[in-house]
Protein backbone atom coordinates (compact mmCIF):
# COMPACT_ATOMS: atom_id res chain seq x y z
CA UNK A 1 0.00 0.00 0.00
CA UNK A 2 1.48 3.30 -1.08
CA UNK A 3 1.26 6.33 1.17
CA UNK A 4 -0.99 7.78 -1.51
CA UNK A 5 -3.49 5.00 -0.86
CA UNK A 6 -3.34 5.72 2.87
CA UNK A 7 -4.05 9.39 2.31
CA UNK A 8 -6.91 8.45 0.02
CA UNK A 9 -8.35 6.19 2.74
CA UNK A 10 -7.99 9.02 5.26
CA UNK A 11 -9.72 11.39 2.88
CA UNK A 12 -12.58 8.92 2.32
CA UNK A 13 -12.91 8.42 6.07
CA UNK A 14 -13.06 12.13 6.84
CA UNK A 15 -15.46 12.79 3.98
CA UNK A 16 -17.74 10.00 5.15
CA UNK A 17 -17.62 11.09 8.79
CA UNK A 18 -18.07 14.77 7.94
CA UNK A 19 -21.05 14.23 5.65
CA UNK A 20 -22.61 11.74 8.08
CA UNK A 21 -22.33 14.29 10.88
CA UNK A 22 -23.93 17.05 8.83
CA UNK A 23 -26.80 14.81 7.70
CA UNK A 24 -27.28 13.51 11.24
CA UNK A 25 -27.47 17.01 12.69
CA UNK A 26 -30.05 17.99 10.09
CA UNK A 27 -32.17 14.85 10.55
CA UNK A 28 -31.37 14.09 14.18
CA UNK A 29 -32.25 17.52 15.58
CA UNK A 30 -35.92 17.46 14.57
CA UNK A 31 -36.15 13.78 15.52
CA UNK A 32 -34.61 14.45 18.94
CA UNK A 33 -36.91 17.45 19.40
CA UNK A 34 -39.96 15.39 18.48
CA UNK A 35 -38.94 12.62 20.87
CA UNK A 36 -38.23 15.05 23.70
CA UNK A 37 -41.75 16.50 23.41
CA UNK A 38 -43.49 13.17 22.80
CA UNK A 39 -45.75 12.24 25.65
CA UNK A 40 -47.04 8.86 24.61
CA UNK A 41 -46.47 5.26 25.58
CA UNK A 42 -45.21 4.61 22.06
CA UNK A 43 -42.24 6.84 22.78
CA UNK A 44 -40.31 3.82 24.08
CA UNK A 45 -40.73 2.02 20.76
CA UNK A 46 -39.25 4.99 18.91
CA UNK A 47 -36.45 5.21 21.46
CA UNK A 48 -35.70 1.51 21.06
CA UNK A 49 -35.50 1.83 17.27
CA UNK A 50 -33.14 4.80 17.55
CA UNK A 51 -30.98 2.96 20.09
CA UNK A 52 -30.88 -0.28 18.12
CA UNK A 53 -27.51 0.40 16.39
CA UNK A 54 -25.93 0.58 19.86
CA UNK A 55 -26.52 -3.10 20.56
CA UNK A 56 -26.95 -4.68 17.15
CA UNK A 57 -23.79 -6.25 15.65
CA UNK A 58 -22.82 -3.97 12.74
CA UNK A 59 -22.78 -6.99 10.46
CA UNK A 60 -26.48 -7.57 11.09
CA UNK A 61 -27.28 -4.00 10.12
CA UNK A 62 -24.91 -4.28 7.17
CA UNK A 63 -26.51 -7.51 6.03
CA UNK A 64 -30.02 -6.07 5.94
CA UNK A 65 -28.82 -2.89 4.27
CA UNK A 66 -26.99 -4.96 1.65
CA UNK A 67 -30.22 -6.74 0.84
CA UNK A 68 -32.16 -3.45 0.68
CA UNK A 69 -29.48 -1.83 -1.49
CA UNK A 70 -29.29 -4.70 -3.95
CA UNK A 71 -30.37 -3.52 -7.43
CA UNK A 72 -32.79 -6.44 -7.58
CA UNK A 73 -34.75 -5.25 -4.54
CA UNK A 74 -37.13 -2.29 -4.04
CA UNK A 75 -35.05 0.60 -2.69
CA UNK A 76 -31.89 -0.44 -4.53
CA UNK A 77 -33.75 -0.87 -7.82
CA UNK A 78 -35.47 2.47 -7.36
CA UNK A 79 -32.12 4.17 -6.72
CA UNK A 80 -30.61 2.52 -9.79
CA UNK A 81 -33.52 3.59 -11.98
CA UNK A 82 -33.07 7.28 -11.12
CA UNK A 83 -29.28 7.53 -10.77
CA UNK A 84 -28.13 4.65 -12.96
CA UNK A 85 -25.81 3.48 -10.22
CA UNK A 86 -25.89 0.71 -7.69
CA UNK A 87 -26.40 1.69 -4.09
CA UNK A 88 -24.47 -1.26 -2.78
CA UNK A 89 -20.68 -0.88 -2.94
CA UNK A 90 -20.93 2.90 -3.44
CA UNK A 91 -20.03 5.90 -1.29
CA UNK A 92 -23.72 6.88 -1.08
CA UNK A 93 -24.44 3.40 0.22
CA UNK A 94 -21.94 3.56 3.05
CA UNK A 95 -23.07 7.12 3.80
CA UNK A 96 -26.65 5.91 4.34
CA UNK A 97 -25.32 3.00 6.39
CA UNK A 98 -23.22 5.36 8.54
CA UNK A 99 -26.14 7.70 9.13
CA UNK A 100 -28.23 4.83 10.49
CA UNK A 101 -25.34 3.33 12.41
CA UNK A 102 -24.38 6.60 14.17
CA UNK A 103 -27.94 7.86 14.68
CA UNK A 104 -28.17 7.18 18.44
CA UNK A 105 -24.88 8.97 19.09
CA UNK A 106 -26.37 12.20 17.78
CA UNK A 107 -30.04 11.83 18.73
CA UNK A 108 -29.58 10.71 22.33
CA UNK A 109 -27.47 13.64 23.61
CA UNK A 110 -29.71 16.11 21.81
CA UNK A 111 -32.90 14.52 23.16
CA UNK A 112 -31.50 14.58 26.67
CA UNK A 113 -30.49 18.24 26.30
CA UNK A 114 -33.92 19.24 24.99
CA UNK A 115 -35.65 17.37 27.81
CA UNK A 116 -33.42 19.06 30.37
CA UNK A 117 -34.04 22.49 28.89
CA UNK A 118 -37.78 22.02 29.40
CA UNK A 119 -40.56 24.35 28.35
CA UNK A 120 -40.26 27.22 30.79
CA UNK A 121 -37.82 29.41 28.84
CA UNK A 122 -39.61 28.62 25.59
CA UNK A 123 -42.88 29.78 27.12
CA UNK A 124 -41.15 32.96 28.25
CA UNK A 125 -39.93 33.44 24.67
CA UNK A 126 -43.42 32.90 23.26
CA UNK A 127 -44.79 35.57 25.59
CA UNK A 128 -42.18 37.96 24.13
CA UNK A 129 -43.52 37.49 20.59
CA UNK A 130 -40.90 34.95 19.43
CA UNK A 131 -42.30 32.25 17.11
CA UNK A 132 -41.18 28.64 17.31
CA UNK A 133 -38.33 28.85 14.77
CA UNK A 134 -37.12 32.09 16.33
CA UNK A 135 -37.24 30.41 19.76
CA UNK A 136 -35.23 27.46 18.49
CA UNK A 137 -32.39 29.61 17.18
CA UNK A 138 -32.36 32.22 19.95
CA UNK A 139 -33.09 30.09 23.02
CA UNK A 140 -32.73 26.35 22.36
CA UNK A 141 -29.57 26.48 20.26
CA UNK A 142 -27.52 28.77 22.53
CA UNK A 143 -28.70 26.91 25.65
CA UNK A 144 -27.83 23.46 24.26
CA UNK A 145 -24.71 24.42 22.29
CA UNK A 146 -22.52 22.06 24.30
CA UNK A 147 -24.81 19.12 23.60
CA UNK A 148 -24.75 19.89 19.89
CA UNK A 149 -20.96 19.84 19.93
CA UNK A 150 -20.98 16.57 21.89
CA UNK A 151 -23.51 15.03 19.51
CA UNK A 152 -21.56 16.11 16.43
CA UNK A 153 -18.24 14.92 17.84
CA UNK A 154 -19.64 11.55 18.91
CA UNK A 155 -21.35 11.06 15.56
CA UNK A 156 -18.13 11.95 13.75
CA UNK A 157 -15.90 9.77 15.93
CA UNK A 158 -18.24 6.82 15.79
CA UNK A 159 -18.36 6.99 11.99
CA UNK A 160 -14.56 7.10 11.83
CA UNK A 161 -14.50 3.95 13.93
CA UNK A 162 -17.03 2.14 11.80
CA UNK A 163 -16.00 -1.18 10.26
CA UNK A 164 -18.63 -3.89 9.98
CA UNK A 165 -21.32 -1.96 8.17
CA UNK A 166 -18.89 -0.52 5.62
CA UNK A 167 -17.36 -3.92 5.04
CA UNK A 168 -20.77 -5.49 4.41
CA UNK A 169 -22.23 -2.87 2.09
CA UNK A 170 -19.24 -0.95 0.81
CA UNK A 171 -16.59 -3.51 0.14
CA UNK A 172 -13.15 -2.12 -0.34
CA UNK A 173 -13.00 0.22 -3.33
CA UNK A 174 -10.15 2.75 -3.09
CA UNK A 175 -11.37 6.36 -3.14
CA UNK A 176 -14.98 5.23 -2.90
CA UNK A 177 -15.57 2.95 0.06
CA UNK A 178 -12.13 2.09 1.44
CA UNK A 179 -11.98 3.86 4.79
CA UNK A 180 -9.08 3.75 7.27
CA UNK A 181 -10.43 0.89 9.37
CA UNK A 182 -10.88 -1.27 6.25
CA UNK A 183 -7.43 -0.33 4.94
CA UNK A 184 -5.99 -1.39 8.30
CA UNK A 185 -7.78 -4.73 8.10
CA UNK A 186 -6.36 -5.17 4.58
CA UNK A 187 -2.82 -4.51 5.68
CA UNK A 188 -3.08 -6.97 8.55
CA UNK A 189 -4.47 -9.64 6.23
CA UNK A 190 -1.52 -9.03 3.92
CA UNK A 191 0.84 -9.32 6.95
CA UNK A 192 1.99 -5.79 6.18
CA UNK A 193 2.49 -4.84 9.82
CA UNK A 194 4.53 -1.65 9.27
CA UNK A 195 1.70 0.11 7.44
CA UNK A 196 -0.85 -1.43 9.79
CA UNK A 197 0.95 0.11 12.77
CA UNK A 198 0.94 3.42 11.09
CA UNK A 199 -2.81 3.33 10.29
CA UNK A 200 -3.74 1.99 13.71
CA UNK A 201 -1.75 4.72 15.44
CA UNK A 202 -3.45 7.35 13.29
CA UNK A 203 -6.93 6.09 14.28
CA UNK A 204 -5.95 5.69 17.94
CA UNK A 205 -4.47 9.15 18.35
CA UNK A 206 -7.19 10.83 16.32
CA UNK A 207 -9.92 9.21 18.40
CA UNK A 208 -8.13 10.01 21.67
CA UNK A 209 -7.82 13.67 20.78
CA UNK A 210 -11.44 13.92 19.71
CA UNK A 211 -12.76 12.19 22.85
CA UNK A 212 -10.54 14.29 25.10
CA UNK A 213 -12.00 17.41 23.49
CA UNK A 214 -15.56 16.16 24.03
CA UNK A 215 -14.97 15.35 27.69
CA UNK A 216 -13.24 18.65 28.31
CA UNK A 217 -16.21 20.42 26.80
CA UNK A 218 -18.68 18.36 28.82
CA UNK A 219 -16.73 19.04 31.98
CA UNK A 220 -16.87 22.79 31.43
CA UNK A 221 -20.51 22.59 30.46
CA UNK A 222 -21.48 20.57 33.51
CA UNK A 223 -19.69 22.99 35.79
CA UNK A 224 -21.66 25.74 34.10
CA UNK A 225 -24.93 23.88 34.56
CA UNK A 226 -24.16 23.33 38.23
CA UNK A 227 -23.53 27.06 38.61
CA UNK A 228 -26.80 27.80 36.91
CA UNK A 229 -28.88 25.35 38.88
CA UNK A 230 -27.49 26.37 42.27
CA UNK A 231 -26.23 29.93 42.00
CA UNK B 1 -76.50 54.98 12.69
CA UNK B 2 -78.51 52.09 14.06
CA UNK B 3 -78.24 50.97 17.62
CA UNK B 4 -76.72 47.64 16.54
CA UNK B 5 -73.79 49.29 14.79
CA UNK B 6 -73.33 51.71 17.65
CA UNK B 7 -73.17 48.80 20.02
CA UNK B 8 -70.68 46.80 17.97
CA UNK B 9 -68.49 49.88 17.54
CA UNK B 10 -68.60 50.41 21.25
CA UNK B 11 -67.65 46.77 21.84
CA UNK B 12 -64.67 47.17 19.56
CA UNK B 13 -63.38 50.17 21.40
CA UNK B 14 -64.10 48.92 24.88
CA UNK B 15 -61.21 47.19 26.47
CA UNK B 16 -62.50 43.97 27.89
CA UNK B 17 -61.68 40.35 28.39
CA UNK B 18 -64.19 37.61 27.77
CA UNK B 19 -63.34 34.17 29.04
CA UNK B 20 -65.20 30.88 29.10
CA UNK B 21 -63.07 27.92 30.10
CA UNK B 22 -63.65 24.23 30.67
CA UNK B 23 -60.43 22.44 31.48
CA UNK B 24 -60.17 19.07 33.20
CA UNK B 25 -57.15 17.97 35.19
CA UNK B 26 -56.64 14.76 37.11
CA UNK B 27 -57.45 16.34 40.44
CA UNK B 28 -59.82 19.17 39.66
CA UNK B 29 -61.75 20.88 36.93
CA UNK B 30 -61.35 24.50 35.94
CA UNK B 31 -64.68 26.08 35.02
CA UNK B 32 -64.57 29.83 34.57
CA UNK B 33 -66.85 32.16 32.76
CA UNK B 34 -66.47 35.89 33.13
CA UNK B 35 -66.35 39.11 31.25
CA UNK B 36 -64.89 42.26 32.61
CA UNK B 37 -63.65 45.63 31.53
CA UNK B 38 -59.91 45.89 31.35
CA UNK B 39 -58.94 48.89 33.33
CA UNK B 40 -56.75 48.96 36.34
CA UNK B 41 -55.40 45.98 38.16
CA UNK B 42 -57.58 42.95 38.74
CA UNK B 43 -56.35 40.70 41.52
CA UNK B 44 -57.06 36.99 41.50
CA UNK B 45 -56.95 35.59 45.02
CA UNK B 46 -57.07 31.95 46.02
CA UNK B 47 -55.29 29.12 47.79
CA UNK B 48 -52.55 27.33 45.95
CA UNK B 49 -54.12 24.73 43.72
CA UNK B 50 -57.31 26.72 43.24
CA UNK B 51 -56.66 27.11 39.51
CA UNK B 52 -55.30 30.66 39.38
CA UNK B 53 -52.18 29.79 37.39
CA UNK B 54 -54.09 27.48 35.07
CA UNK B 55 -56.51 30.31 34.33
CA UNK B 56 -53.66 32.67 33.40
CA UNK B 57 -52.01 30.01 31.23
CA UNK B 58 -55.21 29.46 29.26
CA UNK B 59 -55.61 33.21 28.68
CA UNK B 60 -51.97 33.41 27.55
CA UNK B 61 -52.39 30.46 25.18
CA UNK B 62 -49.87 28.29 26.99
CA UNK B 63 -52.37 25.49 27.47
CA UNK B 64 -53.42 24.21 24.08
CA UNK B 65 -55.60 21.42 25.46
CA UNK B 66 -58.06 23.77 27.10
CA UNK B 67 -61.55 24.02 25.67
CA UNK B 68 -61.98 27.74 25.95
CA UNK B 69 -63.32 30.89 24.40
CA UNK B 70 -61.02 33.83 24.97
CA UNK B 71 -61.78 37.25 23.51
CA UNK B 72 -59.49 40.19 24.25
CA UNK B 73 -60.61 43.70 23.22
CA UNK B 74 -62.94 42.23 20.60
CA UNK B 75 -60.19 40.01 19.16
CA UNK B 76 -60.96 36.27 19.35
CA UNK B 77 -57.84 34.58 20.66
CA UNK B 78 -59.34 31.18 20.95
CA UNK B 79 -62.60 29.36 20.39
CA UNK B 80 -63.77 25.98 19.19
CA UNK B 81 -62.17 26.41 15.77
CA UNK B 82 -59.37 28.91 16.21
CA UNK B 83 -56.29 29.08 18.32
CA UNK B 84 -54.05 32.12 18.15
CA UNK B 85 -50.53 31.23 19.21
CA UNK B 86 -49.26 32.83 22.42
CA UNK B 87 -46.65 34.89 20.53
CA UNK B 88 -49.43 36.57 18.54
CA UNK B 89 -51.79 37.31 21.43
CA UNK B 90 -50.22 40.60 22.56
CA UNK B 91 -50.34 39.37 26.11
CA UNK B 92 -47.43 39.74 28.51
CA UNK B 93 -46.65 37.21 31.22
CA UNK B 94 -44.51 37.66 34.32
CA UNK B 95 -43.82 34.21 35.75
CA UNK B 96 -43.37 33.37 39.40
CA UNK B 97 -39.80 32.21 38.65
CA UNK B 98 -38.91 35.20 36.39
CA UNK B 99 -37.61 32.90 33.61
CA UNK B 100 -34.87 35.22 32.41
CA UNK B 101 -32.71 33.85 29.61
CA UNK B 102 -29.48 32.76 31.32
CA UNK B 103 -27.39 33.01 28.14
CA UNK B 104 -28.12 36.73 27.85
CA UNK B 105 -27.25 39.68 30.06
CA UNK B 106 -29.94 41.84 31.61
CA UNK B 107 -29.82 44.20 28.64
CA UNK B 108 -29.83 41.19 26.29
CA UNK B 109 -33.04 40.00 27.94
CA UNK B 110 -34.64 43.43 27.52
CA UNK B 111 -33.57 43.68 23.90
CA UNK B 112 -34.99 40.25 23.20
CA UNK B 113 -38.45 41.69 23.84
CA UNK B 114 -37.72 45.17 22.48
CA UNK B 115 -36.50 43.94 19.08
CA UNK B 116 -39.47 41.65 18.54
CA UNK B 117 -42.09 44.20 19.38
CA UNK B 118 -43.48 45.83 16.27
CA UNK B 119 -45.04 49.17 17.28
CA UNK B 120 -42.25 50.27 19.64
CA UNK B 121 -44.18 53.03 21.34
CA UNK B 122 -42.21 52.66 24.51
CA UNK B 123 -38.84 54.08 25.24
CA UNK B 124 -36.31 51.50 26.41
CA UNK B 125 -34.62 54.03 28.68
CA UNK B 126 -37.88 54.98 30.30
CA UNK B 127 -38.84 51.39 31.10
CA UNK B 128 -35.37 50.75 32.52
CA UNK B 129 -35.79 53.80 34.71
CA UNK B 130 -39.35 52.96 35.69
CA UNK B 131 -38.36 49.46 36.86
CA UNK B 132 -35.21 50.76 38.57
CA UNK B 133 -32.77 48.45 36.80
CA UNK B 134 -30.39 51.14 35.46
CA UNK B 135 -27.50 49.69 37.44
CA UNK B 136 -28.08 46.09 36.41
CA UNK B 137 -27.94 46.27 32.62
CA UNK B 138 -24.63 44.52 32.06
CA UNK B 139 -25.00 41.99 34.85
CA UNK B 140 -25.27 38.24 34.42
CA UNK B 141 -28.91 37.39 35.15
CA UNK B 142 -27.89 34.43 37.32
CA UNK B 143 -26.16 36.75 39.78
CA UNK B 144 -29.23 38.90 40.44
CA UNK B 145 -31.26 38.78 43.65
CA UNK B 146 -34.85 37.53 43.52
CA UNK B 147 -36.23 41.08 43.53
CA UNK B 148 -33.83 42.23 40.82
CA UNK B 149 -34.76 39.25 38.66
CA UNK B 150 -38.44 40.08 38.92
CA UNK B 151 -37.83 43.74 38.08
CA UNK B 152 -35.96 42.67 34.94
CA UNK B 153 -38.73 40.20 34.09
CA UNK B 154 -41.32 42.94 34.49
CA UNK B 155 -39.31 45.36 32.33
CA UNK B 156 -38.91 42.65 29.70
CA UNK B 157 -42.64 41.91 29.67
CA UNK B 158 -43.49 45.63 29.40
CA UNK B 159 -41.13 46.09 26.45
CA UNK B 160 -43.14 43.57 24.41
CA UNK B 161 -45.93 46.18 24.68
CA UNK B 162 -48.78 43.83 25.53
CA UNK B 163 -52.43 44.85 25.64
CA UNK B 164 -52.81 42.91 28.86
CA UNK B 165 -50.20 41.89 31.40
CA UNK B 166 -50.59 38.66 33.34
CA UNK B 167 -48.62 38.31 36.57
CA UNK B 168 -48.39 34.96 38.32
CA UNK B 169 -47.31 35.39 41.95
CA UNK B 170 -44.43 37.66 40.90
CA UNK B 171 -43.53 38.61 44.47
CA UNK B 172 -43.79 35.25 46.20
CA UNK B 173 -40.01 34.75 46.36
CA UNK B 174 -39.37 38.16 47.91
CA UNK B 175 -38.98 39.18 51.53
CA UNK B 176 -41.48 41.60 53.05
CA UNK B 177 -39.50 44.75 52.55
CA UNK B 178 -38.69 44.02 48.90
CA UNK B 179 -42.34 43.14 48.41
CA UNK B 180 -43.39 46.59 49.65
CA UNK B 181 -41.01 48.28 47.21
CA UNK B 182 -42.25 46.14 44.36
CA UNK B 183 -45.88 46.96 45.10
CA UNK B 184 -44.96 50.65 44.94
CA UNK B 185 -43.12 50.02 41.68
CA UNK B 186 -46.04 48.15 40.14
CA UNK B 187 -48.38 50.98 41.11
CA UNK B 188 -46.07 53.48 39.39
CA UNK B 189 -45.86 51.32 36.27
CA UNK B 190 -49.58 50.96 36.12
CA UNK B 191 -50.11 54.68 36.60
CA UNK B 192 -47.57 55.59 33.94
CA UNK B 193 -48.55 53.07 31.24
CA UNK B 194 -52.23 52.52 32.14
CA UNK B 195 -51.74 48.90 31.19
CA UNK B 196 -54.43 46.50 32.41
CA UNK B 197 -53.02 43.83 34.68
CA UNK B 198 -54.35 40.49 35.88
CA UNK B 199 -52.48 39.83 39.10
CA UNK B 200 -52.54 36.38 40.69
CA UNK B 201 -51.52 35.88 44.30
CA UNK B 202 -52.37 33.92 47.40
CA UNK B 203 -51.15 36.85 49.50
CA UNK B 204 -54.17 38.89 50.51
CA UNK B 205 -52.11 41.97 51.46
CA UNK B 206 -50.49 42.16 48.01
CA UNK B 207 -53.90 41.85 46.40
CA UNK B 208 -55.37 44.44 48.78
CA UNK B 209 -52.59 46.93 48.13
CA UNK B 210 -52.56 46.57 44.34
CA UNK B 211 -55.95 45.66 42.96
CA UNK B 212 -58.92 47.76 42.00
CA UNK B 213 -61.07 44.70 41.45
CA UNK B 214 -60.69 41.27 42.98
CA UNK B 215 -61.76 37.82 41.83
CA UNK B 216 -61.66 35.01 44.36
CA UNK B 217 -61.00 31.52 43.07
CA UNK B 218 -61.70 28.31 44.87
CA UNK B 219 -61.46 24.80 43.48
CA UNK B 220 -61.36 25.90 39.85
CA UNK B 221 -64.26 28.32 40.10
CA UNK B 222 -64.64 32.04 40.64
CA UNK B 223 -66.69 32.45 43.80
CA UNK B 224 -66.47 36.23 44.29
CA UNK B 225 -65.83 39.16 41.98
CA UNK B 226 -66.12 42.87 42.71
CA UNK B 227 -64.47 45.98 44.05
CA UNK B 228 -61.50 45.30 46.30
CA UNK B 229 -62.99 46.65 49.57
CA UNK B 230 -66.32 45.01 48.98
CA UNK B 231 -64.79 41.59 48.24
CA UNK B 232 -62.05 41.58 50.87
CA UNK B 233 -64.27 42.89 53.70
CA UNK B 234 -66.82 40.18 52.92
CA UNK B 235 -64.54 37.30 52.00
CA UNK B 236 -66.14 33.94 51.54
CA UNK B 237 -65.83 31.56 54.52
CA UNK B 238 -64.01 28.98 52.42
CA UNK B 239 -61.19 31.50 51.97
CA UNK B 240 -61.13 33.01 55.47
CA UNK B 241 -60.78 29.55 57.01
CA UNK B 242 -57.15 29.68 55.89
CA UNK B 243 -56.40 33.32 55.10
CA UNK B 244 -57.12 35.82 57.86
CA UNK B 245 -58.68 38.77 56.08
CA UNK B 246 -57.71 42.32 56.99
CA UNK B 247 -60.01 45.34 56.91
CA UNK B 248 -59.55 47.05 53.56
CA UNK B 249 -60.02 50.83 53.36
CA UNK B 250 -59.26 53.81 51.21
CA UNK B 251 -58.49 56.82 53.40
CA UNK B 252 -57.58 60.38 52.50
CA UNK B 253 -54.84 62.43 54.11
CA UNK B 254 -56.31 65.26 56.20
CA UNK B 255 -53.28 66.67 57.94
CA UNK B 256 -49.78 65.77 59.11
CA UNK B 257 -48.93 66.15 62.80
CA UNK B 258 -45.21 66.15 62.21
CA UNK B 259 -44.30 66.85 65.84
CA UNK B 260 -46.11 63.73 66.96
CA UNK B 261 -45.14 61.61 64.01
CA UNK B 262 -48.76 61.12 63.06
CA UNK B 263 -50.93 61.62 60.00
CA UNK B 264 -54.61 62.28 60.41
CA UNK B 265 -56.77 60.42 57.90
CA UNK B 266 -60.41 60.63 56.87
CA UNK B 267 -62.87 58.19 55.45
CA UNK B 268 -63.52 58.96 51.79
CA UNK B 269 -67.13 59.99 52.40
CA UNK B 270 -67.33 61.08 56.01
CA UNK B 271 -70.90 61.00 57.20
CA UNK B 272 -69.71 61.79 60.64
CA UNK B 273 -67.06 64.41 61.07
CA UNK B 274 -66.48 63.34 64.66
CA UNK B 275 -64.38 60.36 63.53
CA UNK B 276 -60.68 61.01 63.64
CA UNK B 277 -58.22 58.44 62.38
CA UNK B 278 -54.54 58.62 63.22
CA UNK B 279 -51.84 56.69 61.44
CA UNK B 280 -48.04 56.85 61.64
CA UNK B 281 -46.63 59.80 59.69
CA UNK B 282 -47.02 59.00 56.01
CA UNK B 283 -45.14 60.27 53.02
CA UNK B 284 -48.22 61.50 51.16
CA UNK B 285 -49.68 64.85 50.16
CA UNK B 286 -52.81 66.36 51.70
CA UNK B 287 -56.01 65.05 50.14
CA UNK B 288 -54.24 62.03 48.63
CA UNK B 289 -56.17 58.77 48.76
CA UNK B 290 -54.30 55.89 50.40
CA UNK B 291 -55.10 52.21 50.17
CA UNK B 292 -54.80 51.05 53.78
CA UNK B 293 -55.37 47.82 55.65
CA UNK B 294 -55.80 46.93 59.31
CA UNK B 295 -55.05 43.40 60.47
CA UNK B 296 -57.90 41.74 62.33
CA UNK B 297 -55.62 41.01 65.30
CA UNK B 298 -54.75 44.73 65.69
CA UNK B 299 -58.34 45.75 66.49
CA UNK B 300 -60.13 45.42 69.81
CA UNK B 301 -63.70 46.04 71.01
CA UNK B 302 -65.26 47.79 73.97
CA UNK B 303 -68.90 48.17 75.01
CA UNK B 304 -68.38 51.59 76.59
CA UNK B 305 -66.54 54.48 75.06
CA UNK B 306 -63.03 54.36 76.48
CA UNK B 307 -62.37 57.87 77.82
CA UNK B 308 -58.82 58.95 78.49
CA UNK B 309 -57.25 55.97 76.77
CA UNK B 310 -53.78 55.80 75.28
CA UNK B 311 -55.29 54.05 72.27
CA UNK B 312 -55.92 56.99 70.00
CA UNK B 313 -58.26 55.58 67.38
CA UNK B 314 -61.75 54.87 68.65
CA UNK B 315 -65.16 54.96 67.06
CA UNK B 316 -68.60 53.48 67.32
CA UNK B 317 -70.13 50.78 65.13
CA UNK B 318 -72.63 47.94 65.05
CA UNK B 319 -71.90 44.21 65.12
CA UNK B 320 -73.24 42.65 61.93
CA UNK B 321 -71.73 39.19 61.99
CA UNK B 322 -70.10 36.74 64.40
CA UNK B 323 -68.20 33.81 63.05
CA UNK B 324 -66.32 31.07 64.83
CA UNK B 325 -62.79 30.73 63.40
CA UNK B 326 -61.34 28.03 65.59
CA UNK B 327 -62.07 26.31 68.90
CA UNK B 328 -61.56 29.50 70.87
CA UNK B 329 -61.23 32.20 68.25
CA UNK B 330 -64.02 34.37 66.85
CA UNK B 331 -64.22 36.78 63.97
CA UNK B 332 -66.52 39.77 64.45
CA UNK B 333 -67.69 42.08 61.66
CA UNK B 334 -68.54 45.62 62.71
CA UNK B 335 -70.21 48.14 60.45
CA UNK B 336 -69.03 51.74 60.84
CA UNK B 337 -71.02 53.96 58.48
CA UNK B 338 -70.51 52.17 55.14
CA UNK B 339 -67.25 50.45 56.13
CA UNK B 340 -66.99 46.90 57.38
CA UNK B 341 -64.29 46.17 59.94
CA UNK B 342 -63.05 42.65 60.65
CA UNK B 343 -61.92 41.97 64.22
CA UNK B 344 -60.40 38.79 65.61
CA UNK B 345 -61.13 38.14 69.25
CA UNK B 346 -61.62 35.25 71.63
CA UNK B 347 -64.81 33.33 72.26
CA UNK B 348 -64.39 34.23 75.93
CA UNK B 349 -64.45 37.96 75.12
CA UNK B 350 -67.52 37.58 72.91
CA UNK B 351 -69.39 35.87 75.73
CA UNK B 352 -68.13 38.31 78.35
CA UNK B 353 -69.35 41.32 76.33
CA UNK B 354 -72.46 39.40 75.23
CA UNK B 355 -71.80 40.43 71.65
CA UNK B 356 -74.61 39.66 69.25
CA UNK B 357 -75.93 40.87 65.94
CA UNK B 358 -76.83 44.57 66.38
CA UNK B 359 -74.75 45.24 69.50
CA UNK B 360 -73.26 48.74 69.58
CA UNK B 361 -69.52 48.57 70.16
CA UNK B 362 -66.49 50.79 70.12
CA UNK B 363 -63.61 49.73 67.88
CA UNK B 364 -60.23 50.82 69.10
CA UNK B 365 -56.71 50.50 67.73
CA UNK B 366 -53.29 52.10 67.81
CA UNK B 367 -52.05 54.43 65.10
CA UNK B 368 -49.58 51.91 63.70
CA UNK B 369 -52.40 49.41 63.09
CA UNK B 370 -53.20 51.42 59.96
CA UNK B 371 -50.78 50.06 57.40
CA UNK B 372 -49.99 50.69 53.80
CA UNK B 373 -47.03 49.72 51.62
TrEMBL record, chain A:
Location of this chain's protein in the cell: Cell inner membrane; Cell membrane
InterPro entries per UniProt: MetI-like (IPR000515), MetI-like_sf (IPR035906), ModB_ABC (IPR011867)
One GO molecular-function entry: molybdate ion transmembrane transporter activity
Superkingdom in the source lineage: Bacteria
Coiled coil (residue ranges): none
PROSITE patterns documented for this protein: ABC_TM1
Protein name, per record: Molybdenum transport system permease
Organism of origin: Thalassotalea litorea
Lineage: Bacteria, Pseudomonadati, Pseudomonadota, Gammaproteobacteria, Alteromonadales
Automatic annotation (TrEMBL), chain B:
Pfam families hit by this protein: ABC_tran (PF00005)
Source domain of life: Bacteria
Gene3D superfamilies (alphabetical): 2.40.50.100, P-loop containing nucleotide triphosphate hydrolases (3.40.50.300)
Keywords from the named record: ATP-binding, Nucleotide-binding, Transport
SUPFAM superfamilies given in the database record: MOP-like, P-loop containing nucleoside triphosphate hydrolases
UniProt GO MF annotations: ABC-type transporter activity; ATP binding; ATP hydrolysis activity; molybdate ion transmembrane transporter activity
Record's GO cellular component terms: membrane
All copies of domain ABC transporter, residue ranges: 14-244
PANTHER family registered for this protein in UniProt: ABC TRANSPORTER I FAMILY MEMBER 10
Name the record gives this protein: Molybdenum ABC transporter ATP-binding protein
UniProt organism field: Thalassotalea litorea
UniProt gene name: modC
Amino acid sequence: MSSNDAWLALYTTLKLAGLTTVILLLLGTPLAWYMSKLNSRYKVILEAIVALPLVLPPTVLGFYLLILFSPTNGPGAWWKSITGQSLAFSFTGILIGSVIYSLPFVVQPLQKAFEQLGDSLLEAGAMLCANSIDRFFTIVLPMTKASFITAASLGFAHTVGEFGVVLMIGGNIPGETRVLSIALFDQVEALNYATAHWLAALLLIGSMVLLALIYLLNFNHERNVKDRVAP
Amino acid sequence: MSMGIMKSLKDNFDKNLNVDIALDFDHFNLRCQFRFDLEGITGILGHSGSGKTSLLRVIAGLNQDAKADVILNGRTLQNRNNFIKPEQRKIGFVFQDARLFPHLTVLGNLNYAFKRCKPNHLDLEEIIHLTQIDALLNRDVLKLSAGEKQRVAIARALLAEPELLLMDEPLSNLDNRARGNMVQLLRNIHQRLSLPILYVSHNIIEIQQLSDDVMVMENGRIIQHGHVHQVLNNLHERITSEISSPTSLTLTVKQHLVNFGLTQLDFIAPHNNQVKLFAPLMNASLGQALRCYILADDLSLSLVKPEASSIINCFCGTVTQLHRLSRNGMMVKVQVMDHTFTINTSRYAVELLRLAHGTEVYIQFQADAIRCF
